[in-house]
């Protein structure tokens, strides 16, 4: 099946035409437009990355899915428009929909069912302080699949710190979220998370939850969303074979900013509050911040900060909070 997806992507003709604001015309195959950049596969330049703001017009006889800033989806070919910074999507039923280029968040080929809807990144890092002889090995992986009706995300993080006094302290996580996209930029989300944080006394924590949220802002330069929900949590404290279960609320928010002029710079942040509904007075928080700067095409330098807090850790000898700063080198794909 994956072979058929790849064949469908490769079989598309290089018949898409872009007219630039300076009057230049480029012909090739539009691969995807997202985060303010369009990838165009050509015979003479290879795959070129073009700033969306530099494009005046786009046309193609092939089928695309166009997503606008209000979360609406339009499927069809791209018809030439006589007005700069505007495209017309012609549906299979002949319906014409005119959209300003500044209203569009994402464009991808309709036939490319899998690969062109997948984006993500991975990174590895190593930090060492000679004065304290503390070293940290870190790594992360994140990928998102987008479709008109849903999107899902898989993420994984590892962080292992070696301290001469405490030994090795691990902080790992593996998560999966699934969003059913609704009208007016709203969504229903299901989530699962498996994590380990020895600093806060968690040998393992398994969490299953669901929530209702909304994208308050979606543009090619930024994205802001929030969610409320409930989760069932099971925890195993360090040094104990017994587990405990609880029900927690979920209050979360995500904010992403993109700057596309070379070099590309992006910032992402995620904040989560888990007030316990079964353990009176207990609550947890998670905060993650990441700042990325492109070094060369698709390779970047990442500076990340994390902070985790638990008002009542299951291990009485554990710390209430864990925080750190890591640097890493990574690669992004889309």
The CATH class label of the largest domain is: Mainly Beta
Q: Find the CATH superfamily of the largest domain.
A: Nucleoside-specific channel-forming protein, Tsx-like
Number of strands: 21
The value of Rg in angstroms is: 23 Å
Q: Averaged pLDDT, please?
A: 89
- CATH topology (level 3) name of the largest domain: Outer membrane phospholipase (ompla), Chain C
Basic shape: elongated
Distance between the termini: 20 Å
Q: Give the biggest beta sheet.
A: 12 strands, antiparallel, barrel
Domain count: 2
Return the string of H and E elements. HEEEEEEEEEEEEEEEEEEEEE
Level-2 CATH architecture of the largest domain: Beta Barrel
Structural class: mainly beta
Considering DSSP H and I runs of 4 or more, what fraction of the residues is helical?
under 10%
Number of contiguous helices: 1
The parts where pLDDT drops under 50 for at least 5 residues are: 1-10
Q: How much beta, percentage-wise?
A: over 45%
Strand line-up in the sheet with most strands: 10-11-12-13-14-15-16-17-18-19-20-21
């Amino acid at each position: 099946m994956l072979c058929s997806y790849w064949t469908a992507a490769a079989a598309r003709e290089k018949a898409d035409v872009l007219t630039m604001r300076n009057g230049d015309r480029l012909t090739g195959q539009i691969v995807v437009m997202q985060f303010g950049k369009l990838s165009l596969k050509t015979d003479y330049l290879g795959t070129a990355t073009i700033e969306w703001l530099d494009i005046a017009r786009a046309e193609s006889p092939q089928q695309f899915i166009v997503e606008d800033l209000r979360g609406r989806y339009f499927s069809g070919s791209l018809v030439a428009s006589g007005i700069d910074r505007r495209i017309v999507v012609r549906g299979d039923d002949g319906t014409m929909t005119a959209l300003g280029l500044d209203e569009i968040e994402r464009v991808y080929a309709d036939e490319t069912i899998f690969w062109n809807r997948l984006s993500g990144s991975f990174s590895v890092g190593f930090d060492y302080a000679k004065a304290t002889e503390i070293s940290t090995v870190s790594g992360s992986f994140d990928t998102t699949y987008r479709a008109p009706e849903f999107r899902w995300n898989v993420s994984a993080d590892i962080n292992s710190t070696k301290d001469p006094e405490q030994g090795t302290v691990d902080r790992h996580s593996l998560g999966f979220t699934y969003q059913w996209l609704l009208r007016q930029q709203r969504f229903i989300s299901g989530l699962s998370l498996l994590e380990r944080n020895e600093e806060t006394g968690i040998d393992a924590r398994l969490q299953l939850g669901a929530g209702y949220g909304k994208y308050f802002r979606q543009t090619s330069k930024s994205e802001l969303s929030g969610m409320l929900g409930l989760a069932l949590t099971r925890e195993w404290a360090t040094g104990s074979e017994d587990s405990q279960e609880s029900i927690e609320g979920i209050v979360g928010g995500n904010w992403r900013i993109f700057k596309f002029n070379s070099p590309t710079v992006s910032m992402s942040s995620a904040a989560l509050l888990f007030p316990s509904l079964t353990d009176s007075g207990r609550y947890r928080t998670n905060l993650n911040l990441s700042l990325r700067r492109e070094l060369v095409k698709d390779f970047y330098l990442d500076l990340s900060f994390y902070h985790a807090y638990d008002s009542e850790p299951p291990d009485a000898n554990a710390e209430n909070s864990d925080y750190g700063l890591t640097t890493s080198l990574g690669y992004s794909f889309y």
